[in-house]
Backbone:
């Protein structure tokens, strides 16, 4: 048997805090062999990334390695000096970060960034470095490397940028690559391509890869060995197929069962129940103070009729010279009372633009949106204000959709005040009631958004959206930024709310298994057009369009877990 | 790129036409110059004759057109006070102000960026804390007080540097310079520091906060993960990104240096445009005031135009969206 290229032995990382030592990584051990991909999985805060950072010697102050050893090719590296660690970074250990949009310097061409790194590690002439850079770009399948070499990061799409990042990590033929959530920010189809590339590279160059992710599908598809982490400790370690098919630890079992299944529709999302953190609260309570929405006149609450949106691509003085990019092209669908309508598609397919047009955040360039029979595109300012009270939106990023300078109470109270729904003296009571409904305590009201985790913030967004007692809720990728375990909680809240309150919902996601669980009917978008609308079950069982079938095929599957 | 520049040039011209209108309107709204120019002993004929001679009897649009036309050729008429061509007076005074402004701008930019980068990189060091606290003085003390304090310390107490004037100047082809004589160079030091101190602290604080922001970005982490040295990361990757917003502010501040020169020139009795302007205000010498206003606005507009072009040069994202 070959020697492991990297060994982590009983690694503990500690952060001194006011309340004593906090240990985000405790006693973690695992090995990586050449050409092997090891998945490290767990929810956020489990210490997966922290372990990766310790390996490359990039722990942020004041975190430090308290005990344990890290061995790289038979050499101990955790106790090296700063300069020695720097010499290893990039040369022996490459790194790939989560967000390809922010990991490249926007002011330098990708060629400059590649040549700089190659020259740093390999001591070659500028011309040789350029040659190698072009070969690397070619290796990571970037078309036309010669032209691309002189382009800036913003001229690349997300997937292409992640390829550049991979090329940068490969500059000096490292022995290990630490890939920290390398595909979390990417679409399903791009994700599959990037993961394939990583697999190919591992086999071809015999580089060992640590793949940190919270996505069980990615683990199942890509890795040979998996390490499951929970609150800083390794709870399970072993070959991927064995861990996934016969998990030994309770947490692993619970985590695997929480992954939304593409194959079957379940009534509720199974939650990660390990550690007693499953929240229990009575969703029935919320129906009490809720005016059941009146049924719409025609049975169709929202009718979207041939809407189109064009964005200016090239500006010019003469209108005839201007060119436009059609983001949404003649899209029509209806949403019935009490229905959850899903929109799926790759990023850039126009899903969010449709949602924004329905939510009157963007103007409509053609076509009509009707709400309960009234044409929204022709409403007066008064009508729009009244319409907005009846619809609410929940956005993807719970970090930027809440004002960081406002307390939670004010955030949730704002729609009530703005629409003058309640007299000021009753607002506080209503806010507490809303926070109760989404499973937050009253103490939450007097805190600021940064004091909450991603999942809790998304609950605040839901409470805010429910404040006006809307008839129609638009959810734009509400759980894409969240962990599997948190995602299940949020989706269950949305599902319960929808059932008990008779809400009508537009649910946008690129996560197909989630869409299957949530939605009654689903529309598939491709390049601004709605190419297929089906009942969710029919769509997943036998898609009509080839494109839909392709999308379904690309879903990372837990094949071993078909039950 | 070219349409972007043309668009900016067009906007600049628009700004100048508007400031031109403001400068011109002073002729009609700020007192009557005839009162000042002729003494108590005047006849109605004298008043009428002078009015006709200065063109003040024509309808306002005609006067405005005439003003714009001549202003575009650098002709602002005759100073009411000195009876000489305004352009001639300005040419005579401009070198003093421009040399002073240039030196303080260089002082402010070089020191501001250097100290800003230093305090960002060593942000927990003693020296950085000291500089940050000391910089509050630069931001909070008014210019005239700093000038007076410097004069007191270096001229009165230590006697090292002159307290007023430009010292000896050398004339080269109509441009008088103080850089070539020792007394001229000595005389520049205090006014240049006084004028540039505020801008320097401002630039320093801005560079520091921008730099700290940039150092938190993912691409800096990724640069570290690639094994680049701290020096390359700080001075190549971080500094260039820091400069994008800083350059805009520097552009605006350069204009402000020339405008602020009024106070510094008064404190140091510097024979430049600021002093000329103050005297012009006291005497309601409108052609001089109008010319000064136009000159300052041309400078502001030109500097900002250059900054915008530079901006696009540094930031490739802007080049594309500007296409």
Residues:
């Amino acid at each position: 048997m070959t020697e492991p290229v990297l060994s982590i032995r009983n690694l503990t990382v500690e952060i001194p805090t006011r309340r004593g030592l906090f240990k985000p990584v405790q006693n973690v051990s695992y090995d990586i062999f050449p050409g092997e991909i090891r998945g490290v999985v767990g929810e956020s805060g489990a210490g997966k990334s922290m372990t990766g950072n310790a390996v490359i010697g990039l722990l942020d102050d004041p975190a430090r390695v308290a005990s344990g050893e890290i061995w790289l090719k038979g050499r101990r590296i955790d106790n090296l000096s700063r300069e020695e660690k720097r010499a290893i970074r990039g040369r022996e250990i490459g790194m790939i970060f989560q967000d390809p949009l922010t990991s490249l310097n926007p002011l330098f061409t990708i060629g400059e960034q590649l040549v700089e790194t190659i020259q740093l590690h390999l001591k070659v002439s500028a011309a040789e470095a350029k040659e190698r850079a072009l070969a690397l770009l070619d290796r990571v399948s970037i078309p036309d490397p010669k032209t691309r070499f002189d382009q800036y990061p913003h001229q690349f799409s997300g997937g292409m940028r992640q390829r550049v990042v991979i090329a940068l990590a490969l500059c000096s033929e490292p022995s290990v690559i630490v890939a920290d959530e390398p595909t979390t920010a990417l679409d399903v189809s791009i994700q599959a391509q990037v993961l394939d590339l990583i697999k190919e590279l591992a086999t071809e160059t015999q580089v060992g890869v640590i793949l940190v992710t919270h996505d069980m599908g990615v683990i199942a598809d890509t890795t040979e060995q998996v390490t499951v982490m929970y609150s800083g400790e390794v709870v399970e370690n072993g070959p991927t197929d064995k861990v996934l098919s016969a998990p030994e630890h309770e947490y692993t079992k619970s985590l695997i069962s929480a992954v939304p299944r593409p194959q079957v529709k379940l009534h509720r999302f199974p939650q990660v129940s390990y550690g007693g953190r499953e929240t229990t609260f009575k969703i029935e309570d919320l129906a009490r103070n809720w005016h059941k929405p009146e049924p719409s006149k025609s049975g169709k609450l929202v009718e979207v009729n041939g809407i189109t949106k064009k964005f200016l691509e090239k500006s010019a003085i003469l209108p005839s010279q201007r060119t436009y990019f059609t983001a949404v092209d003649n899209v029509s669908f209806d949403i019935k009372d009490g229905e959850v309508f899903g929109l799926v598609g790759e990023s850039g397919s126009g899903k969010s633009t449709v949602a924004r047009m329905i939510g009157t955040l963007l103007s409509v360039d053609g076509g009509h949106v009707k709400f309960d029979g009234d044409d929204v595109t022709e409403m007066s300012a008064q009508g729009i204000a009244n319409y907005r009270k009846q619809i609410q939106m929940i956005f993807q990023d719970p970090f930027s959709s809440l004002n960081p300078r406002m307390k939670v109470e004010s955030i949730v109270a704002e729609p009530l005040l703005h629409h003058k729904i309640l007299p000021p003296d009753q607002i506080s009571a209503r806010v507490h009631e809303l926070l109760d409904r989404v499973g937050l305590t009253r103490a939450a009201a007097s805190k600021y958004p940064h004091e909450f985790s991603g999942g809790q913030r998304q609950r605040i967004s839901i409470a805010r959206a429910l404040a006006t007692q809307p008839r129609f809720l638009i959810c734009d990728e509400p759980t894409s930024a969240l962990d599997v375990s948190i995602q299940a909680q949020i989706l269950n809240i949305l599902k319960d709310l929808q059932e008990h309150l008779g809400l009508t919902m537009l649910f946008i996601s690129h996560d197909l298994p989630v869409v299957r669980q949530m939605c009654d009917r689903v529309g598939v978008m491709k390049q601004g057009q709605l190419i297929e609308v089906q009942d969710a079950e029919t769509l997943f069982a036998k898609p009509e369009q080839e494109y839909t079938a392709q999308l379904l095929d690309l879903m990372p599957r837990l094949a071993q877990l078909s039950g | 790129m070219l349409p972007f520049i043309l668009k900016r040039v067009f906007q600049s011209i628009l700004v100048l036409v508007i400031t031109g209108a403001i400068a011109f309107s002073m002729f009609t709204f700020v007192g009557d110059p005839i009162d000042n120019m002729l003494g108590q002993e005047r006849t109605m004929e004298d008043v009428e004759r002078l009015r006709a001679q200065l063109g003040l009897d024509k309808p306002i649009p005609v006067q405005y057109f005439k003003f714009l036309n001549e202003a575009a050729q650098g002709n602002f008429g005759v100073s009411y006070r000195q009876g000489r061509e305004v352009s001639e007076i300005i040419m005579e005074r401009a070198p003093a102000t421009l040399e002073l402004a240039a030196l303080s701008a260089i002082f402010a930019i070089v020191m501001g960026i250097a100290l800003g980068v230093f305090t960002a990189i060593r942000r927990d060091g003693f020296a950085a804390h000291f500089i940050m606290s000391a910089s509050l003085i630069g931001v909070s003390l008014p210019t005239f007080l700093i000038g007076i304090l410097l004069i007191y310390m270096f001229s009165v107490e230590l006697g090292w540097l002159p307290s007023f004037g430009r010292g000896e100047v050398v004339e080269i082809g109509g441009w008088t310079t103080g850089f070539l004589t020792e007394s001229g160079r000595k005389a520049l030091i205090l006014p240049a520091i006084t004028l540039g101190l505020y801008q320097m602290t401002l630039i320093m604080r801005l560079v520091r906060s921008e730099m700290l922001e940039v150092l938190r970005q993912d691409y800096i982490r990724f640069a570290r993960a690639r094994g680049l040295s701290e020096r390359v990361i700080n001075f190549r990757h971080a500094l260039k990104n820091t400069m994008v917003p800083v350059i805009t502010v520097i552009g605006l501040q350069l204009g402000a240096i020339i405008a602020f020169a009024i106070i510094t020139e008064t404190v140091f009795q510097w024979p430049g445009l600021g002093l000329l302007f103050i005297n012009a205000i006291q005497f309601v010498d409108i052609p001089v005031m109008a010319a000064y206003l136009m000159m300052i606005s041309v400078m502001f507009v030109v500097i900002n135009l250059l900054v915008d072009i530079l901006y696009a040069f540094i930031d490739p994202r802007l080049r594309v969206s500007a296409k």
Observations:
- Residues 230-267 of chain B form the longest helix (38 residues).
